[in-house]
Design brief:
Length: about 250
């Protein structure tokens, strides 16, 4: 379901697109790394209009929920990232919320990556394709310090077209070391040895600098690009840590 609502009354009645998504209320509320606010719904207010408007007025808002679900009395407004195709596993207190994030190809893509640190067992590649990021470092991928392991590959199964790749660096100050000089490449070719053969893939975008904490590195192609594989490869000599990816 798509919800089209006028955004803040600015130039030309620009439309702000929000998409519905099912998520556990407790999962949204429990995230101690997020910014959030709970507002009372005034008597007679229409929940969708009131809550989406409050979300639009806060530049950090990425999700809103009117709750409890049958007769909402509150709006929960959060910067948590929930992709429209996120699949909730905890259905006990599931709620229809609305996300500002676009429908994307990274969510539920198959992912391969360089070796991950055994000492950080939660920071696995699957975190990058689960459609959820709450700014907790344990929602990131962390690869070992080795030339052959600073990479990820998303596989969409067949060529898909997109124009944007967004990579999120970690929130803490090591972002500059662990997300630095990253190239994104695309290809349809299956038989490659990563990361050595990535040089033969087409360059989609590159981020030469050191990331600042929580930096969202957006790469945009002037025209849609179609490819089955998208790779992220860090050239800087350090372990690689990336926390969320969107491809759309
Ligand atoms: C991911 O891999 C599994 C197992 O190889 C396959 O069945 C599935 O179709 C793949 N999905 C995509 C999106 O490529
Ligand atoms: C991948 O294949 C599709 C069509 O099958 C084509 O349009 C696209 O340009 C190819 N992409 C690359 C990076 O070669």
């Amino acid at each position: 379901m798509l919800l089209l609502l006028p955004s803040a009354p600015v130039e030309g009645g620009e439309l702000c697109l929000m998409r519905s998504v099912l998520i556990s209320l407790q999962r949204v509320q429990a995230a101690s790394f997020t910014k959030q606010e709970s507002l009372d719904l005034p008597p007679g207010a229409r929940p969708a209009l009131y809550c989406s408007n409050k979300c639009t007025l806060r530049d950090w808002c990425r999700l809103w929920c009117a709750y409890p679900s049958n007769t909402p009395t509150h709006c929960l407004i959060s910067n948590i990232i929930v992709m429209p195709t996120y699949q909730e596993t905890n259905m006990a207190d599931v709620l229809t919320c609305h996300t500002t994030r676009p429908k994307d190809l990274a969510t539920h893509a198959n992912i391969t990556a360089g070796k991950q640190y055994m000492s950080h067992p939660l920071r696995v590649k699957e975190n990058l394709v689960d459609g959820f990021y709450n700014y907790d470092i344990n929602q990131c991928l962390y690869t070992v310090w080795s030339n052959s392991d600073r990479w990820i590959t998303l596989d969409f199964g067949q060529p898909k077209c997109f124009q944007h790749v967004i990579l999120y660096a970690q929130e803490s100050s090591s972002a500059g070391q662990l997300f630095n000089n990253v190239q994104v490449r695309v290809s349809n070719v299956t038989a490659v040895t990563p990361p050595a053969d990535f040089a033969s893939y087409d360059l989609f975008g590159e981020f030469p600098g050191a990331a600042s904490p929580g930096q969202e590195v957006e790469m945009k192609s002037p025209k849609p690009v179609c490819a089955r594989f998208v790779t992220g490869h860090m050239l800087y000599d350090h372990p690689f840590q990336v926390c969320h990816i969107e491809v759309f």
